[in-house]
From TrEMBL:
Keywords: Aminotransferase, Transferase. One of its GO terms (molecular function) is succinyldiaminopimelate transaminase activity. CDD domains: AAT_like (cd00609). The keyword Transferase applies. PANTHER family: AMINO ACID AMINOTRANSFERASE, L-GLUTAMINE--4-(METHYLSULFANYL)-2-OXOBUTANOATE AMINOTRANSFERASE. Its EC number is 2.6.1.17. InterPro entries: Aminotransferase_I/II_large (IPR004839), DapC_beta/gammaproteobac (IPR019878), LL-DAP_aminotransferase (IPR050881), PyrdxlP-dep_Trfase (IPR015424), PyrdxlP-dep_Trfase_major (IPR015421), PyrdxlP-dep_Trfase_small (IPR015422). Residues 32-391 form the Aminotransferase class I/classII large domain. This is Succinyldiaminopimelate transaminase. The keyword Transferase applies. It is an enzyme of class 2 (transferase). The lineage of its organism: Bacteria, Pseudomonadati, Pseudomonadota, Gammaproteobacteria, Natronospirales. Its cofactor is pyridoxal 5'-phosphate.
Amino acid sequence: MNPDLDKLHPYPFERLASLKAGITPPDHLSHIALSIGEPKHEPPAFVVQALKDHLDGLAAYPMAPGIPALRAAIARWLCRRFNLAAERLDIERHILPLTGTREGLFALTQAVVEDKPGAAVMMPNPFYQIYEGAALLAGAEPIYLNTTAENDYLPDLDAVGAEDWDRCQLLFLCSPGNPTGRVMGEDYLRKAIELADRHDFVIVSDECYSEIYLTKTPPPGLLEVCESIGRHDFRRCLVMHSLSKRSNVPGLRSGFVAGDADIIKPFRLYRTYHGCAMPLPAQHASIPAWDDDAHVEDNRAAYRAKFDAVLPILEPVLPCVRPEGGFYLWVKVPGGDDEAFARDLFAEQHITALPGTYLSRDTAQGNPGKGHVRISLVATVDECTEAAHRIRAFLEKHKG
């Protein structure tokens, strides 16, 4: 077996299941799951219908590059959303469909990272654990860039020494961030590009939460910044997007990677061997999803309504900050023991939240997830409101 498999950490939800094992929550309270980032809103009816209309596609093997109509729909959305020039965005060279960003993030790392001593992959901390696992199985060392209140929940690029940047092969960014909801501005992304040029590494911007924003202005994207500075070849820059959060279809497993053609081309070859081509029915169902923005606006409004309902209930008893994007509350818990908080909240209120230490790693500067929990507002407004009342009752009971 690959010895690097032994370096993988248990997945957060495995650890959460162990934490809850043997606990019997109150029978009279329904379970409210606020731990996993799985959208619960209804998928658009037209996407479901398109899937049904193309089930005959199950009789054919899909190709790794995806059908041109899908790549064209993705290109239309990228140009519409991120102000890219249609004449410069080549659907043959710059875009590749993925079976979800999770698969893409992992596979791309295997294709990009060169197996050599000292190879490093940088990532925010806390983070989406696929970044770390992909780095480890590619033979690279993960370097964790803490995101804390002190650095405004942005990885501190200036705190990394030149020697570490020189051995960096891949930098993962996530905006809006999981779990903090922090949006990376244009100046920040521009600085990352400058570092990539200076030290010769690839940037992968995970933008799967880009359409769930609570601000008036949509978050900028990495390719958008490339366009604004005249970097029309998107050199060293890739973005990943998904329909999972945007269109509430996590089971469709539909996303894409876009950017530097010199990386997309060999990655396309890699995927031909990897065998992860998106089934044709899913490709056809994805086209109307990328072409429609109205359902995305409704989706955003639904998440905003949840924050509007929950925050006034929790703010008097728990330090809550409305995030710029995403559907998480990243909160510091009283007493500082996030595992105990999550365990006792489940035991007393039948609510599942995710301990912050399950999303982060220890560093010389400390563990930025310690003492925090991630609360995922994916349930209905009524359920989220009920959960907020229960969390407040729990906190008031244990106050002091």
